[in-house]
């Protein structure tokens, strides 16, 4: 199980462009959450190899403003496996393009459920591993 969790970890890089900014010239929170949900979805799908849907996004914390012209890395990792739901912890790290500075800017917990072709929930098949992993 630990190996499955390790290989499903997902990393994605983005450039913070003017089109992603709010009126304070920092990354719009909704864009950050969209990027996080996308990485969480990919992580959940890679882990289960099932059709997954977002159930909730919670505990999102914006720790630092993300400026235009910076790079961000979005990392998703499975942290809890239940019978029907899977939780993914997602972090956004911000890096200056031309300096070695790297800091965590955003973090949050995303819950996913597997569904069938009729869009009905299905068991994940990992009931004996139902535990928190963080």
Output mean pLDDT. 93
Largest sheet: 7 strands, antiparallel
Rg over C-alpha atoms, rounded to the nearest angstrom: 16 Å
Question: In terms of per-residue confidence, which ranges show pLDDT below 50 for 5 or more consecutive residues?
Answer: none
What is the string of SSEs from the N terminus onward? HEHEEEEEE
Residues in helix, %: 10-25%
Using DSSP, what is the number of strands?
Answer: 7
Structural class: alpha+beta
Percent strand? 35-45%
Count of DSSP H/I helices:
2
Principal-axes geometry comes out as: elongated
Spatial gap, N to C terminus? 14 Å
Layout of strands and helices, then pairs:
Blueprint: H1 2-8, E1 10-15, H2 29-48, E2 51-62, E3 70-81, E4 85-96, E5 102-115, E6 121-122, E7 131-132
Antiparallel strand pairs: 1-3, 2-5, 3-4, 3-7, 4-5, 5-6
Please tag this protein with its features:
single chain; 134 residues; seven-stranded antiparallel sheet; alpha+beta; elongated
């Amino acid at each position: 199980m630990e190996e499955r969790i390790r290989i499903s970890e997902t990393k994605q890089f983005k450039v913070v462009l003017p089109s992603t900014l709010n009126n304070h010239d920092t990354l719009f929170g909704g864009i950050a959450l969209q990027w996080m949900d996308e990485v969480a979805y990919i992580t959940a799908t890679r882990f289960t190899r099932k059709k997954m849907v977002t159930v909730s996004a919670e505990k999102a914390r914006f720790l630092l403003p993300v400026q235009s012209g910076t790079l961000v890395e979005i990392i998703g990792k499975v942290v809890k496996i239940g019978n029907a739901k899977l939780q993914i912890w997602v972090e956004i790290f911000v890096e200056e393009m031309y300096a070695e500075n790297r800091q965590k800017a955003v973090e949050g917990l995303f819950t996913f459920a597997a569904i069938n072709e009729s869009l009905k929930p299905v068991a994940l098949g990992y009931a004996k591993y139902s535990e928190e992993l963080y």
